[in-house]
């Protein structure tokens, strides 16, 4: 094209120009076409080279800008000492933990991970504007025993426990969470294997900032206390703390399911925790005879203590006989009496015929299934309990 322009320019030159210029040889048509073809070929050959160079420069510039952005104070994490920033689990786990069961905190809520600035014994919540990716992992129970928080990223990673060969992933569920405003809630997750196969026989749950998230800031990892994970079948035999009235009696401490004590109690009609507590109130000597021999005084004390932590609920029971009406709590303790139309709370029953009231309570115990059941025991009815038959 340049050659063509020169040819056109020369053909239209000013006649007043010097003769030397006007007499320059004119290029042939073939030479003009050849030059144009050569320029086009050169352009075609250079285009990918130029494109690659431009792309590399653009990518280099972008990487530089991203690195600058990651170091930007816009993250709002002020940490003169980077080691003071760390993740924590604010609440302990609900124990025991069984395979196939949901992992929750001691209040039966989802686990949470918080970002804090820990200086000494003080922990101040940190609220970064940008979200942070957090990975949930399983750790060896022996990790960091007695070392406090003095570990490195490499030491933390080296103590992550993987599943056994041929087994499913050790921990399933939501294992990668996003922390917003310094808080991350962990959804449902559960263990697929027990902890008996590692040396410590215990696991920990850990939380770490995911690789590639917030690289410019060191945030120390979180971990729970060490705990044992039992096979799910063990849950079928675990004790309840606290026990419920309707729980089978073997849920009490020192009474094994289908064991000697369990069989003796069921043979005597003591099938539930409520049955156990009612007999302990009305006829403790008989209950003790059922469990002797075999149950030591120490075992007996443990079982009784556990049974008394039972949740009573808000029901009470009414038994009427002649001109007397007695009101009992769910374990057959007398809470008030109505005699000839007058109400006597427990603290005013001392002047009433104790022997007669005891007889009424025992009759109520024998006829428990026919008692009138009511809802809504008030605090006044529960306290103080009667000195009669307790």
Describe this structure in words.
- The chain has 390 residues and is α+β, with helices and mostly antiparallel strands.
- It contains 10 helices and 17 strands.
- It has helices at 2-11, 19-22, 29-70, 153-158, 260-267, 273-282, 284-290, 297-307, 354-366, 379-382, and strands spanning 85-88, 97-98, 112-119, 122-125, 132-140, 171-173, 176-179, 183-185, 189-191, 203-209, 222-223, 229-230, 315-321, 324-328, 334-339, 342-345, 372-375.
- It has a 5-stranded antiparallel β-sheet, with helices on one face. Strands 1, 3, 4 and 8 form a 4-stranded antiparallel β-sheet that branches. It has a 4-stranded antiparallel β-sheet with strand order 7-5-10-11, with no helix packed on it.
- It is elongated and about 145 Å long.
- The model is unreliable at 1-13, 68-82 and 378-387 (pLDDT under 50).
Overall pLDDT confidence: 81
Largest sheet: 5 strands, antiparallel
Summing up helix and strand content along with how strands pair, one would put the structural category as alpha+beta
| Tally of separate helices | 10
**N- to C-terminal distance:** 115 Å
Q: What is the spatial order of strands in the main beta sheet?
A: 16-15-14-13-17
Order of helices and strands: HHHEEEEEHEEEEEEEHHHHEEEEHEH
Low-confidence stretches: 1-13, 68-82, 378-387
Record field, number of beta strands: 17
Helix content: 25-40%
State which percent range the strand residues make up.
15-25%
Shape: elongated
**Rg:** 42 Å
């Amino acid at each position: 094209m340049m050659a063509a322009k020169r040819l056109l320019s020369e053909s239209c030159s000013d006649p007043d120009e010097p003769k030397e210029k006007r007499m320059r040889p004119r290029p042939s048509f073939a030479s003009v076409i050849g030059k144009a073809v050569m320029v086009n070929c050169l352009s075609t050959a250079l285009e990918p080279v130029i494109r690659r160079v431009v792309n590399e420069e653009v990518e280099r510039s972008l990487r530089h800008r991203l690195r600058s952005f990651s170091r930007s104070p816009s993250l709002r994490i002020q940490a003169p000492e980077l080691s003071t920033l760390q993740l924590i689990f604010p609440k302990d786990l609900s124990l025991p933990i069984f395979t196939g069961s949901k992992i929750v905190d001691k209040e039966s809520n989802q686990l949470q991970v918080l970002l804090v600035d820990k200086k000494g014994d003080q922990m101040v919540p940190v609220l970064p504007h940008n979200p942070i990716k957090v990975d949930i992992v399983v750790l060896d129970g022996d990790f960091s025993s007695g070392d406090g928080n003095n570990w490195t990223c490499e030491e933390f990673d080296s103590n992550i426990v993987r599943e056994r060969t041929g087994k499913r992933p050790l921990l399933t569920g939501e294992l990668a969470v996003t922390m917003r405003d310094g808080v991350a809630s962990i959804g449902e997750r559960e263990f697929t294997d027990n902890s008996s196969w590692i040396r410590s026989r215990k696991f920990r749950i850990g939380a770490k900032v995911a690789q590639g998230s917030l690289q410019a800031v060191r945030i120390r990892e979180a971990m729970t206390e060490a705990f044992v994970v039992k096979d799910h079948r063990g849950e079928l035999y675990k004790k309840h703390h606290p026990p419920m009235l309707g729980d089978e009696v073997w849920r009490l401490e020192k009474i094994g399911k289908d064991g000697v004590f369990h069989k003796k109690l069921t043979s005597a009609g003591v099938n539930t925790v409520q049955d156990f507590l009612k007999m302990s109130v009305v006829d403790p000597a008989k209950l003790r005879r059922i469990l002797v021999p075999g149950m030591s005084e120490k075992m007996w004390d443990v079982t009784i203590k556990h049974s008394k932590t039972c949740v009573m609920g808000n029901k009470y029971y009414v038994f009427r006989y002649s001109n007397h009406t007695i009101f009992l709590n769910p374990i057959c303790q007398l809470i008030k009496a109505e005699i000839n139309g007058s109400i006597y709370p427990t603290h005013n029953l001392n002047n009433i015929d104790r022997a007669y009231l005891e007889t009424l309570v025992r009759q109520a115990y024998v006829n428990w299934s026919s008692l009138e059941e009511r809802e809504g025991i008030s605090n006044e009815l529960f306290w103080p309990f009667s000195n009669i038959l307790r």
